[in-house]
Amino acid sequence: MLSYVGRRLLISVPVLFGILGISFIFVQMLPGDPVRALMSPEELATASPEYIEQRRSELGLDKPIFVQFAAWIGEVLQGNLGHSFRRNTPVADMIFERIGPTAILAITALSIALIIGVLLGTFAALKQNSWFDYLSSVTSMMAVSIPNFFLGLMAIYIFSISLGIFPTGGMRTLAASNPSALDRVHHLILPALVLAINLIGPYVRYTRQSMLEVIRQDYITTARAKGVPWMKVVFGHGLRNALIPLTTVIAIQVPILLTGLLVIETIFSWPGLGRLTFESIMGRDYPVIVAIVFISAVFVVLFNLLADVTAAALDPRIRL
Amino acid sequence: MSENVQTAVPVAGRSDEEGIGRRREREVQKGGNGRAGQALSPSRLAIRRFRHHRLAMASVLLLSLLLLLAVLAPLISPYDPNAVNTAAYREPPSGAHWLGTDSAGRDVLSRLLHGARVSLTVGIAAAVSATGLGTLLGLIAGIFRGWVDAIIMRVVDVFLSFPPLVVILLLVAILGPSVTTIIVVIAAFEWPTACRIVRQVSLSVREMDYVLSARAMGSGSLAIVRRHMIGPVLPPLTVVATLLSANAILLEAALSFLGLGVERPNATWGGMLQAAQSMTILQEMPWLWLPPGVAIAATVLSINFMGDGLRDAFDPRQRL
Question: Where is this region: Disordered (chain B) (predicted)?
Answer without folding.
Answer: 1-38
